[in-house]
Amino acid sequence: MNRKNATPTEKPDIRLMKGNEALAEAAIRAGCQGYFGYPITPQSEVLEYLTEEGRKRGMVVMQVESELAAINMVYGGAGAGARVMTSSSSPGISLMQEGISYIACAEIPCLVVNVNRGGPGLGTIQPAQGDYFQATKGGGHGDYHPIVLAPASVQEMADMVYLGFDLADKYRNPTLILADGALGQMMEKVEFPEYNPADHIPEKPWATTGKPKDRERNILTSLHIQPEKMEEVNRRLQKKYETICANEVRYQLVHADDAEILVVAFGLAARISHKAVEMARAQGIRVALMRPITLYPYPYDVLRRMKSTLKGALVVEMNAGQMIEDVRLGVEGAVPVKYFGRMGGIIPTPEEVLEEIRRMSGDGHGAGDGHHHAMHDQILEERN
Amino acid sequence: MNRKNATPTEKPDIRLMKGNEALAEAAIRAGCQGYFGYPITPQSEVLEYLTEEGRKRGMVVMQVESELAAINMVYGGAGAGARVMTSSSSPGISLMQEGISYIACAEIPCLVVNVNRGGPGLGTIQPAQGDYFQATKGGGHGDYHPIVLAPASVQEMADMVYLGFDLADKYRNPTLILADGALGQMMEKVEFPEYNPADHIPEKPWATTGKPKDRERNILTSLHIQPEKMEEVNRRLQKKYETICANEVRYQLVHADDAEILVVAFGLAARISHKAVEMARAQGIRVALMRPITLYPYPYDVLRRMKSTLKGALVVEMNAGQMIEDVRLGVEGAVPVKYFGRMGGIIPTPEEVLEEIRRMSGDGHGAGDGHHHAMHDQILEERN
Amino acid sequence: MTQEILIAGFGGQGVLSMGMTLAYAGMLDGKEVSWMPSYGPEMRGGTANCIVILADEPVSSPIITSFDTLVALNQPSLDKFEKAVKKGGTLLYEKSTIITPPTRTDITILPVDAAREAELLKNKKIGNMIMVGVFLGLNDVVSVDSVMRALEKVLPERYHHLIPVNRDAVERGRSLVGETVTSLEESHE
Amino acid sequence: MTQEILIAGFGGQGVLSMGMTLAYAGMLDGKEVSWMPSYGPEMRGGTANCIVILADEPVSSPIITSFDTLVALNQPSLDKFEKAVKKGGTLLYEKSTIITPPTRTDITILPVDAAREAELLKNKKIGNMIMVGVFLGLNDVVSVDSVMRALEKVLPERYHHLIPVNRDAVERGRSLVGETVTSLEESHE
Amino acid sequence: MASVRGNVQVDIDTCKGCELCVEACPQDSLQLSEKVNAQGYHYAVLIQDNCTGCENCALVCPDAVITVYRTPKNSAGKNAKREAVATVTNVRANMKITVEELPEGKVDL
Amino acid sequence: MASVRGNVQVDIDTCKGCELCVEACPQDSLQLSEKVNAQGYHYAVLIQDNCTGCENCALVCPDAVITVYRTPKNSAGKNAKREAVATVTNVRANMKITVEELPEGKVDL
Amino acid sequence: MDNPREVEMETVSCPEGLEVVWEKPETLTGNRMHYCPGCGHGVVHKLLMEVLKEMDIQDKTIGVAPVGCSVFAYNYMNIDMQEAAHGRAAAVATGVRRMLPDKFVFSYQGDGDLAAIGTAETIHAANRGENFLVVFINNGIYGMTGGQMAPTTLVGMKTSTTPGGRDVETSGFPFNISRLIAMLPGAYYVTRQSVHTPGAVRKTKKAIRKAFEHQRDRKGYCLIEVVSNCPSGWKMTPVVSNQWMEENMFPSYPLGDLKTDGVLQPLKGN
Amino acid sequence: MDNPREVEMETVSCPEGLEVVWEKPETLTGNRMHYCPGCGHGVVHKLLMEVLKEMDIQDKTIGVAPVGCSVFAYNYMNIDMQEAAHGRAAAVATGVRRMLPDKFVFSYQGDGDLAAIGTAETIHAANRGENFLVVFINNGIYGMTGGQMAPTTLVGMKTSTTPGGRDVETSGFPFNISRLIAMLPGAYYVTRQSVHTPGAVRKTKKAIRKAFEHQRDRKGYCLIEVVSNCPSGWKMTPVVSNQWMEENMFPSYPLGDLKTDGVLQPLKGN
Ligand SMILES: Cc1ncc(C[n+]2csc(CCOP(=O)(O)OP(=O)(O)O)c2C)c(N)n1
Ligand SMILES: Cc1ncc(C[n+]2csc(CCOP(=O)(O)OP(=O)(O)O)c2C)c(N)n1
Ligand code: SF4
Ligand code: SF4
Ligand code: SF4
Ligand code: SF4
Ligand code: SF4
Ligand code: SF4
Ligand SMILES: [Mg+2]
Ligand SMILES: [Mg+2]
After folding, report:
1. Number of compact structural domains in chain G
2. What is the ipTM of this complex?
3. What is the pTM assigned to this prediction?
4. Of the four, A1, B206, D162, H49, which is 20 to 30 A from G122 by CA?
């Protein structure tokens, strides 16, 4: 397994692709060597694309008996030192929770993709964001956190695969990409950057590749029967999470300068909110958008910094209101935080969000404010 | 199946029992008709006790092939109108997350018991509270909430079975009891109250018991493929959760009157904190204890009410700090919230907690304060 | 200029590739584009549809509920989506599959006998490209050139020998616009 | 008065039931009691221990790390827990199983030849009740009466015919206290 | 050829035109219509009067849209005039409905 | 009886006294000690000098605590003096160690 | 009109002088099925409901639907039903069965549901001899999710996840789970049928009836595998799909009884 | 001293004039095993490590430990190892195997792990013909969790969850999973052995060696079931447990090859 040469560098390449396909293509280019998965709408294209394309380009791609099997194969394969991933959608991701907890504790770097659909239960196959809590607070047992990335475009469906793998390797931690059915199914323009896996994949001296005479055996385990040892492991994990929180927060901030109202949204809801924010700006409402790109670590700091100048925050989600807790934790009671959302696979419209923004801003939001600000996105990486 | 007469009323009866056994005994007395489970330390006694005692007294008790099978048998059995439960510990509960999401969405009342051990991963079998997030925020996919009860004694291991089943039936919602390994394994005095299942178990006209000619067929499903329908279902669920939050919050408040410092802890950590609070009071520190009895719904209101008179809050948990988020949400930034906890199966000592309380109260907490307050527990049920 | 288009019909009618062709062409023209298929299990029944957005600004949601143009290739699609056309919008439909024609009067309605036109071009599969042509005849949101180039990208390589006939179909569709619009009255017979 | 006790030994030595007997007796005496077994997979090796707390106030944690009394029934237990006895506390140990006796000087140490005493009473299984007796001889945290009543509750019904011999063992244990304490020096030979 | 007289009704609105009944009919009595129903399917229709009521078509029909009739064993109605053989529940204003009486002579039971 | 001369060493510290070696020894050479090791187990000891080095005890020993020796095939040491047969790694101050030389005469290879 | 014999008119009652010999049983709800044209699922639904009607046990029967194309079975079967999570129908049915020992219980499952993700639940329910019927639709593909490989997909068969045909090296062998189940002592009646011809339909109906009678007599676990088609997934017309099935599926999944009255039957085919 | 022949002294080297014929292989770490006295797990660990030593593949072998008493196998085997979640060892091994096609891979699993919670992963790995070895310790009980019923528990056998003996009505039949696996075309070598006598130990070691050789030659999936004891769970002394095992376990789980070189062997026993 010559992992560093798995995928040669390719030049940038622009295509019109489904989000699921872009993600799969990026995985191949990121040097992913193994994919284990089980079909489920709306993400089966990942498996299908990799079966065709990935195999052609040397990847091991397997449709296996279940998501439970898949996540444990990821454990095994990634534990053996390879770049390995799986993908699924909500119910399938629930089935992986035990496995993810094991992976996090054994500190095995890998990539898990959840193309979120409407739940709970079997629900609907339409796009939703109802798995936010599961992804960010820990759907499995015990204290652990995957790094959670939330793409908002097909381009980011690709970009976050590279980032996700790199972060996973950097921290020996699972990365979760939390997308949704629309991002998976829609086609948009996507550009694949130059990326040479050999420059990104670190040595993995901890991997179980067979114990040479001259090193101690490598053991990957999450079992530490002595509470003292288990506490030590937990402290080490917590320390790692602190480092991640300190170094890896990513978010997008739009129109923040003079904002009185802050819309907070991630993924598809953020795209829609962005549009609504632009519409509101056109009407002179001083509103900004904060889009967390990393859901874990969460950009609490930007909220803390902004809270004193805000009149209110509006959280827009495709769920019953989950991220709102993190926003509340961020603004610490300083400003009222309102929620607007749709559920069950329904996508909010920019008009609906605008309506909520207008409601928050009140009628008399000050005449003469109707200046249209040029959109200025800044993708910040805090301290990184 | 004559469910209302499953268990005849018995008179109160005091025993020295393990928490797991007390829970199992209470299940029999609560008219539980079916138990499906899989062994796992530290809760296998539930299965073992029921196998002996439950079967003798007419219960269907089955050790099945896995936790995955167990939770889905609970779905089937409870869906057929019976009082049904399962129990497990952390990794096994993770495996049940898909099933719990289905049960919540199909609105099937049942009882799930998690005797939490140290995680993540295989972890240790010693007591811990690391599954707080999973239990309260939703470890499975989609927007749903089990009602979550947190016992702090063997007595409550029994009491919460009755309460748990009753709430489940009242709201057609799963109830989760979140205990820990120590509560499951320890023996304490327990008194079984009078309880006649016939007075508590409602009719279940929605159950799939076979469709008589004169009623529409009963369908239990979580599938609503049309997003509009799925959103409607979600709205109905959210409405129910609001009712639960309005009516079912339970907590214990000790020494609240003049408190400057509030210790917040649940389960075993609350027992220990209680002791520490008493020790601190003896030293004249004005400290109170708030023990959430329901973790969902969470007693945010009591925190909101108290926040203006507090100088700080200390959250004591047997995890890396999970409930602290709910406490922060409750006090809304009004007071600093500190965390003290142990992990991986280690139980904090009252002395350690006292130390933290002392640190918070500062050295000069006012002389002459050394009056020992009589302990006055009040188990409040907000608006109920 | 932004065009929000819904194309709906049976599985085999080339619904998705029609949409992709337009989206790809838009991309080549430097537009912001998105293409979104329906992927519900209603596909079991054999229906398919996709939403194409061609815009000057970034597309917010790929899933929208009202459209500038509806291309309805069968009766169920027409029945279901007629009301989703924006006031003043356009509705193209495949004449041969429609039993009950649309009735709205606040939109432009064009029946297109794409199936027959395709047969005339000796390829039953290119009805969708006839429709693309009609669409182009009515809108200049994307250039004909880009559509032609898009075809190469959208058609799998094994079908590249069919590019010429697809081009012909697009051309034929464009030329139909005059004819079709004049026959509008008649379609409401 | 609060007594925090750790009883530790092999699986078959009646470690758990000894603890239960004390806890039950405490309950009968109106005390707040808790009994907590160790349940780790170290049980594979055959060791067992339990913590019994007899108190006047509600027990906070059933798991504690230092004890008023340690009852060590085998060498590994003694080795592991000798240091966990509170200063001034008591350590009882089963003489027959101990190769290396305890060495602390800040606690009271009593070797008990419970196995031999049990044999004298013609029942190898009641060594634990000899130990209960010794404990009672040293502490009055629970009443002898309650211990006797507790026996009935703790022993499964099929062993109820053995209650008399268990009582005898408790009595014998109590009577040993004088003898044992005086022989204390010798045990440090 | 057919010694028993039968008949079938197809719920053409629900028929999906899968053609399995056509394939299964030993009498070749069935065929798919050239027209489509509202779902766009070419529904099954009876094209001959030689149906024996053997049920085959109904047995294989996945959508259970065929009802089969037969002369009662102790039959009075043996030579009853043959009439409507397909249900039309989706009549629309613009549909052309053709009803042809089958010539009596062709019924040779 | 035994035609090959063997010997075993038991790591008595690690031995768990399961008695499986005793059961497996065709020579009845092994027995459990009356004494216990630090783990409290009655460990296995060689009680006869008739060991053939057949390995049986070692094969069945779950804890792999038995080492087996045998006269080399082309043996020089055939009648080498028999010595220590059990490893004592847990010697404590208070242990009584008895070493008896086995009488030469009994070694009848 | 192209075909002069095409006759259409509104008729609602039984044609004069004739009696009904087959009509849709009222145990079917009458909802239009969402299945693709020619899909075997509909036939099996119909047979199940006919048997319930004939045995007059509609009011005593609880069905369990899977996740798969038949996920909506409860829209068509006019009985109490539970919709199980993917693969867990046998566990759900166990829960129902154990709580309602006097009712009739069946699960209805596809090959992905039963033989991939649900393998453990399937096998252990059989091994416990749960007294219910499992109806197993083996169409060699994941119909619902758009035509991926199923455990029963044939070697060389093309699906969206075996674009070059199923390859044993990567994906293993077609999984003959009914044969394994027949080996289990808990299984009482295991048979493999099809519904592509009138004769096959009649046999399958008899098998279903037999299984429900066994259930009534508390004989234990029964499994009826129906080798079926998936015109959409296979990308064939219904008629061609049935021919293809006969030629390709039957050699690997030969029809007939695998176990009757608790007795293993001699193996047929490979 | 009670027994005058009891000889103890410190010896570290080979007794004079003798050569070592059996000693603990260095492929074992030397850590004291946590198993109960007389437990078969230790014997099988030893044999595995002897084979790795003999084939000189210690540096090429990755083991997968289960959840069960052998959860700590990695403390004793001196090789790279992964600890799998309960029941998922076959999936974990698949992951390792597919990423490291040139190494040797085995999983080591108990009957609860392999045949209850892990049924699906076990069967599908076999069905895919994954080129690794599964060592399956069948002791008819859940040792680690304190003696509950396992899928392989015998009818009438008492465990903490079958206090009156396993009853078929409630708990189903003892599950002969190796026989099922042998039926799968992906399985190349399936054998049932034991380690309670020197002869049995020798045979089991041969079987292990054979399996690793098959793996080297890429023959596919091999399963070695070892019918073993659980003195603690069975509440017997080790010696008695082995007798009980012969008398009670072997009739239900007869020893011998179930499949060799891909060919099913005639059934023995019931
Ligand atoms: C946990 C989970 N994993 C995956 C899916 C997606 N899924 C739905 S149906 C299905 C397979 C359907 O195939 P099969 O059981 O053969 O039924 P068919 O559609 O062929 O009748 C899958 C994988 C799901 N809903 N839940
Ligand atoms: C998901 C999960 N469920 C249950 C357990 C508890 N558990 C640990 S080992 C075990 C069974 C062990 O039995 P077996 O596999 O037969 O191994 P043995 O101990 O007998 O060698 C169980 C149920 C667990 N750790 N994880
Ligand atoms: S009943 Fe028989 S003869 Fe009549 S149409 Fe149907 S299949 Fe043909
Ligand atoms: S079998 Fe049924 S659905 Fe198919 S064509 Fe015939 S009538 Fe129509
Ligand atoms: S090597 Fe053979 S003869 Fe020697 S002690 Fe061991 S079993 Fe007995
Ligand atoms: S077999 Fe091994 S562990 Fe058991 S008694 Fe013999 S030497 Fe000791
Ligand atoms: S996809 Fe296949 S199985 Fe599903 S309804 Fe269509 S034909 Fe039937
Ligand atoms: S419990 Fe049983 S299987 Fe586990 S180590 Fe002890 S004897 Fe062996
Ligand atoms: Mg299928
Ligand atoms: Mg076992």
Report:
1. 1
2. 0.93
3. 0.93
4. B206
